[in-house]
């Protein structure tokens, strides 16, 4: 067998861009993208992406060049996921909720050559560009105009999106990757830490990730997906490309609003949607909700969803699946694969099991929980804490321009996630915290996630986040930031919250401080920004008093 070698016939590079060509052939007249009164078919989307790729190439962009986009979930954002890499360039999607300084830093760090800008983000981008040093090259700007208004090129925007599409060549011979390892996207981490890093993924990785994510979620042919997850966040967990593979319909929404979500679900027969646990929480607490006529599959990830939130969401007709992944994995790599026998368990026990992250997806090679120093696997007892490590075909290539950070997290043949978890006796993984979020109080490791889960079960609590607060005696204690449900008539006292926790947690885990907030700081994908809350906790009086009850 030694004489048999790879050849051009069996070793062509894998790329998710091929999904679009197939979709145009198989599902050509079926709807691909729906936005307000606009509907495109898969034939339309294929043609538009080729035309746009042609125009991008004509502007001098090609292999290795970074093309950025700052836009919400509109058709242009979806099309750019195909058109930019079809021109050979690398797609960089930017969080629309970042401030001008951060956007400026990311544009310069990525060396972006071309920037597509949604009309509502124009002031943000112009301010970001104004912060460039005089000698720094600026990206060429393309305006994604208000669809209800005619647009023409302006001084700051020499091109419009619609103009590039209309002037492009529908027969463009798109630029295929030369290697599996050619970069396809550059994604900056979402901002739950203070220092976002540029994550580079290749065509091969996103091909595997997209197909694996469809399989792990059991997505059928021609689903109707409502885009409640920002496409700029890890490329919509790879479902931007995945929906083309199964000929799905992409229902685009400019912004998240619970009442609009329920209205859209009913109007379009939505079958699938994604979102962080905060999305589940908002939907389950919305007065515009009510029992859904047909089940809607919702995939949640980003943080362990509290069991109480899962129960409320499923009572409305949402079928909740739970996954785990990072920007560095492109999509989720662990899923709570459901066993039929669990359906016979009480609702509270089902919710507890579903809150676990689960087992590796089919294409992920290995997942383990190890002692960070020795690298040895922790005991599978559901109690022994360790760092979650991954090994598989769609782990990132590395951090852009940051070999030190890449080497730090990629070692001993594993990707070290920085997440703390346990492995249960049945082989299911459960996250307990980010390593930086573990609170060490009096020498005891305290999981903020466990405390938050108890707080979420309080009838008046809408959202909760627990962080470390410096303490002169204990070193650190738990500080809880809490928002209340809208229908709450009487604000519970701090003592009542503590007593509620004390009946459900070991004494050392009970929050020593409770801070009422009108809103918790979040990223655009709904992740609570604990680094912001940690700074707030540090700023509190260190005298040991716990009377902070102002609703800010």
UniProtKB/TrEMBL annotation:
What region holds the AMP-binding enzyme C-terminal domain?
450-527
Q: Which UniProt keywords apply?
A: Ligase, Phenylpropanoid metabolism
In which pathway is this protein known to take part? Phytoalexin biosynthesis; 3,4',5-trihydroxystilbene biosynthesis; 3,4',5-trihydroxystilbene from trans-4-coumarate: step 1/2
Any GO MF annotation of the entry: (E)-caffeate-CoA ligase activity
Q: Does the keyword Membrane apply?
A: no
| Domain of life, per lineage | Eukaryota
Q: Which Gene3D superfamilies match?
A: 3.30.300.30, N-terminal domain of ligase-like
Q: Which Gene Ontology BP terms does the record give?
A: phenylpropanoid metabolic process
Is Transferase tagged as a keyword? no
Domain named AMP-dependent synthetase/ligase: residues:
20-400
Coiled-coil residues: none
One Pfam family matching this protein: AMP-binding
What family, per the record?
Belongs to the ATP-dependent AMP-binding enzyme family.
- Its recorded name reads 4-coumarate--CoA ligase
């Amino acid at each position: 067998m030694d004489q048999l070698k790879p050849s051009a016939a069996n070793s062509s590079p894998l790329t998710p861009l091929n999904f679009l060509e197939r979709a145009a052939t198989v599902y050509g007249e079926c709807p691909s993208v729906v936005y307000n009164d606009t509907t495109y078919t898969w034939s339309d989307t294929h043609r538009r992406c080729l035309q746009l790729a042609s125009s991008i190439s004509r502007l001098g962009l090609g292999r290795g060049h970074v093309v950025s986009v700052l836009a919400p979930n509109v058709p242009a954002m979806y099309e750019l996921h195909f058109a930019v890499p079809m021109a050979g360039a690398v797609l960089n999607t930017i969080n629309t909720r970042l401030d001008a300084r951060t956007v400026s830093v990311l544009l310069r760090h990525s060396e972006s050559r071309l920037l597509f800008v949604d009309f509502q983000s124009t002031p943000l981008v112009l301010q970001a560009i104004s912060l460039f040093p005089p000698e720094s090259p600026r990206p060429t700007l393309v305006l994604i105009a208000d669809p209800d208004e005619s647009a023409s090129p302006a001084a700051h925007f020499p091109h419009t999106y619609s103009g590039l599409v209309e002037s492009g060549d529908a027969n463009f011979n798109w630029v295929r990757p030369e290697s599996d390892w050619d970069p396809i996207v550059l994604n900056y981490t979402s901002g739950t830490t203070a220092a976002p890093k540029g994550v580079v993924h290749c065509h091969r990785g996103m091909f595997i990730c997209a197909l694996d994510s469809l399989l792990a979620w059991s997505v059928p042919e021609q689903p109707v997906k409502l885009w409640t997850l920002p496409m700029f966040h890890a490329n919509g967990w790879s479902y931007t490309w995945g929906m083309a593979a199964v000929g799905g319909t992409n229902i685009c929404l400019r912004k998240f609003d619970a009442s609009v979500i329920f209205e859209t679900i009913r109007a379009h027969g939505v079958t699938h949607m994604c979102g962080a646990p905060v999305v589940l929480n908002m939907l389950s607490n919305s007065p515009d909700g009510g029992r859904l006529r047909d089940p809607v599959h919702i995939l949640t990830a980003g943080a362990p969803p509290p069991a109480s939130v899962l129960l409320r969401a499923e009572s409305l007709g949402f079928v909740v699946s739970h996954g785990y992944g990072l920007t560095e994995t492109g999509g989720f790599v662990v899923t709570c694969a459901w066993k039929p026998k669990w359906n016979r368990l009480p609702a509270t026990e089902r919710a507890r099991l579903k809150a676990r992250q689960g087992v590796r997806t089919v294409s992920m090679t290995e997942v383990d929980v190890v002692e960070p120093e020795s690298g040895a696997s922790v005991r599978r007892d559901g109690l022994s804490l360790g760092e979650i490590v991954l090994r598989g075909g769609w782990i990132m290539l590395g951090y852009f321009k940051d070999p030190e950070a890449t080497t730090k997290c990629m070692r001993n043949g594993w990707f070290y996630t920085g997440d703390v978890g346990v492995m249960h006796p049945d082989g299911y993984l459960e996250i307990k915290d980010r390593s930086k979020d573990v609170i060490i109080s009096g020498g005891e490791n305290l999981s903020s996630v466990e405390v938050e889960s108890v707080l979420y079960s309080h009838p008046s609590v809408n959202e909760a986040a627990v962080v470390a607060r410096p303490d002169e005696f204990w070193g650190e204690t738990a500080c809880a930031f809490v928002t209340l449900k809208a229908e709450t008539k009487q604000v519970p006292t701090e003592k009542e919250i503590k007593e509620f926790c004390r009946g459900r947690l070991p004494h050392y885990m009970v929050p020593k401080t409770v801070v009422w907030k009108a809103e918790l700081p979040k990223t655009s994908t709904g992740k609570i920004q604990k680094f912001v809350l940690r700074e707030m906790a540090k700023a509190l009086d260190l005298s040991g008093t716990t009377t902070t009850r102002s609703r800010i």
